[in-house]
Design a protein that fits this description.
This protein folds into three domains: 91 residues, Ribosomal Protein S5, domain 2; 36 residues, no CATH class; 139 residues, no CATH class. Helices cover 61% and strands 14% of the residues. It is built from eight helices and six strands; from the N terminus they run E-E-E-H-E-E-H-H-E-H-H-H-H-H. The strands form two sheets. Strands 1-2-4-3 form a four-stranded mixed sheet, with helices on one face. Strands 5-6 form a two-stranded antiparallel ribbon.
Length: 282
């Protein structure tokens, strides 16, 4: 599921900010961006995040700003000297002008890397845990709205299926009458027993009762999974939605009736909405 969260710690000496962003993904893809002096904490941070965030493309960034005397920038004298030497070879300028230009170039001025103490390490762990929890709470709120929409779409498919079920017998009779009318137009002698057998065989191939029963079961199971306390629902709902799609497609291929096809199209539209929402569900 998508989401964003931020947690901040401030003191007289340091300001630390953790931001967590999540995009849709079938699995957990975790990317951490840490200051160089904090990279030794990466493994511990991953062990904190993984149990909390089970799915998604997750970017976690830590920004650290030193305050007071520790925040003072330092001149990288070796780099500046190299810049001035090279610039002096290609430009006719005074040393003061070369110095001004050189200090504006990359890595000429740098902030000192300060290794975190134990208290700061614990604060980073706490910030990451807080931001992850905020993200989860945001996703839960968003998830409640998704459940309402998914329920609406499942009910829409169910209503369409009810209409198909009511119309199927009428479709069978219309198909039978149409075939008999076409045969009469051939003006040939027909064995009635053989004709009845062939009609039964043909109409059985168009029968959708089994598909209707299976589709009802899939819709019911989908609703049960949504209401369950299972943590990882997204993949299971995805599998069920595939089965729903198979039954709808089979009914559509057998429908052979404009009125039924109209209901099938609406059911497919509702299913597509479901699949779009499932991309956001863990």
């Amino acid at each position: 599921m998508t989401g964003f969260a931020r947690s901040i710690f401030e003191s007289d000496e340091i300001t630390m900010t953790v931001e967590v962003r999540s995009l849709n993904s079938k699995n957990l893809e975790l990317n951490l961006r840490l200051p160089y002096s904090y990279r030794s904490l990466e493994d511990e941070l991953r062990s904190i995040i993984k149990p909390q965030l089970l799915r998604g493309k997750v970017d976690v960034s830590l920004t650290v700003k030193q305050q007071g005397s520790k925040a003072a920038a330092e001149l990288n004298k070796d780099v500046i000297s190299a810049y001035m030497s090279q610039l002096g070879e290609i430009a006719d300028a005074t040393p003061a002008e070369l110095l001004t230009i050189s200090t504006r170039l990359p890595d000429a001025i740098q902030s000192p890397e300060v290794l975190p103490d134990e208290a700061q390490k614990k604060e980073v762990f706490s910030l990451v845990s807080q931001a992850s929890e905020q993200l989860i709470n945001y996703q839960r709120t968003e998830g409640q709205a998704m459940v309402k929409d998914l329920t609406t779409q499942i009910e829409s498919i169910q209503k369409g299926l009810d209409k198909v079920n009511r119309k199927k017998d009428e479709r069978t009779q219309q198909t039978r009458s149409k075939l008999l009318e076409q045969l009469k137009g051939l003006a040939v002698e027909i064995d009635q027993n053989r004709l009845e057998q062939e009609l039964i065989y043909y109409l059985e191939k168009l029968d959708i009762n089994e598909e209707i029963v299976r589709l009802r079961q899939h819709l019911s199971y989908f609703s049960d999974v949504m209401k369950s306390d299972t943590v990882m629902k997204g993949k299971k709902l995805g599998f069920v939605s595939q089965e729903i799609g198979r039954e709808i497609n089979t009914i559509g291929s057998k429908a052979n009736n404009a009125s039924l096809q109209k209901e099938i199209v609406q059911m497919k539209d509702a299913l597509e909405r479901i699949k779009e929402q499932l991309l956001n569900i863990i």
